[in-house]
Automatic annotation (TrEMBL):
This is Lipoxygenase homology domain-containing protein 1 isoform X2. The gene is LOC101862626. Residues 176-295, 304-425, 440-556 form the PLAT domain. It comes from the Eukaryota. PROSITE patterns: PLAT (PS50095). Residues 565-586 are annotated as: Disordered.
Amino acid sequence: MDDLNVWAKPPRPVLSGLNGRPRTSNVRYTWTGPIDPQLYGDGLKQLTRNTDRNLSRLEKEKKEILPSKQRHLGGPAQPPFVASSWHDSTVMFAPWGTLSTTSRKSSLADDASTVSSISGATNFCYLCSTLEEHQMHLMRTRIPKKVVVKKPRIVYRAPVPKVKPKIEEPKEILDWRYKVVVWTGDVPGATTDANVYISLKGDLNFLYKARLCRGNHTQKFCFCRGSRETFFIKSPRLGNLEILSIEHDGLEKRHSWYCEKVEITCMKTHRQWVFTCKNWLSLHHGDYSIRRDLLANQVERTSNEYELTVVTGTKRMAGTDANVFVTFHGTDGFSPKIKLTADGQRQVKNLFEKGSQDKFHLAFKDIGEIRTVRVEHDGKGLAAGWFLDRMILQNIKQPSIIYYFLLNGWLAKDVGDGHLWREIRAKKKLAKEITTGKPVSYQVTVRTGDVRYAGTDANVYIIIHGKKGKTKKLFMDDTRDNFERGQTEVFEVTALDTGEITRIQIGHDNSGPGAGWFCEDIKIKKFLNRENVVEFLKNLKKKKKPKKKHKKRLSDKLKERALADIPEDVTEDEESESEDDDKEGSYRNVFDREGKVVKVPVYEEYFFVCKNWLATDEADGLIERELEVKKQSTFFQDRDWQST
């Protein structure tokens, strides 16, 4: 009976089922908790039965709880293991009671865990599930690990190689330009399409083998017989040229080339050199050489003498005692900076007085056609500000060559942007004021800018320039408060006919407080009178080419026209001009097929853009500006409507 009681199941405490539900008869307890074996099959049922038997056996066999210091980790040696039912292979789980008892005892121990002595044989850890796992755990913990002392690893570091630093040669700055003109001789067989190269040696530097070509360097260039070819090359500053080497890479007879001469001009200093060749560059002519070294012959440029007239304005405090300088810029260079003095003496106090006209004799090398002049002064002396009206430059040897430079502005520190210099464009002709002719009506629309202090109370005027001449000053004023900020105003003025308008001058007299004015743009309508209309129609007829009469014949062109449904009376000239004829003001729109006038011009409209200040304390300090035509158009009406 005792043996049977050993295997008898102990009474189980009444516990709640899964998820808090009442336990059913099928629930079994394992080390993981209650499990229903009906859910997992027969194998799990057998496992739960063994677990129940083990729980009952452990309840009877437990004797004492060892202190926490005698755990299998670092505890004293235990007596040898006594064979018992634990050695059975069917025993797999730790007893439930042992786990619960151990957990209660562990709270009283110094350390956090205790173990139970099973049958007085060996220690058993509640963390292990089976005896075999427990013994393997003991073996692993008791075997000391050998400390392997690693030998220090020797790291080889190669020494830094001693490499000489590369000395980069400074790149040459090619900021100079040279003009190269090559003449090919007018002899038979002088043409070549070989690649031509030149090398230049100066007293400051050297240019090596620059190819003479245009555009893409991969394209061929042909030097034709009797031709003159111009090239531009970039180079460092060479100074005074001494030797030119010219060569080509042609080896065949067709590459033979006869070079007449080479002319080189520096575009900065405008010095000129000529290299005379007059020889063959060929392996089949002359001395069988394709390279020539030529010596330079510098060309001295002729000097021109001019008479300069400087007109000082009549404004208050317009004169100056400062030193005045001028520099002229032309198509082929520029003159040196010239100081304007009287007969070479420093009699500055008698020059540039209010309303005076001072004349000076100037001489400098030919710079071609003069385009601009830079006038400046050093600002020395009392009241150094200077009001320059205009300058006139006339060639003494050729009096017909005259240049006009109009400014009508200040060169002063306290006016405008404070600059003491101005760049003035040259004019070859000045429009004369028209005194005879029939007057025409002009409608001037002026728009003042929408910027701060843009309005003015000064007297604003306009001068209209045309192909026939210019008008006098036409002041624009009426009963309104004119030229206020953001306003657009229309004025009707009457003046003599100037022909087709080319430009205008807009300005004011700088009177009143806050005279500065910001002008946005100007539009002028010129109403045409009878003479203008007749002149316009005559000029339009002259531009029209007469029709060519063709005989009617069955040619290929007529057949093509018939297939394309093109009328036979349309000529080739009319087809090419069809697009131009469709424009407003063209011959086809003004005249009909019989040559009668269908439309007549009514007025011409010109548009000018300013967008600048006319003020002494703003921008460049100018109170008068010259504006070019930005847009031009002509408006027409039917002749029948005009006659009614």
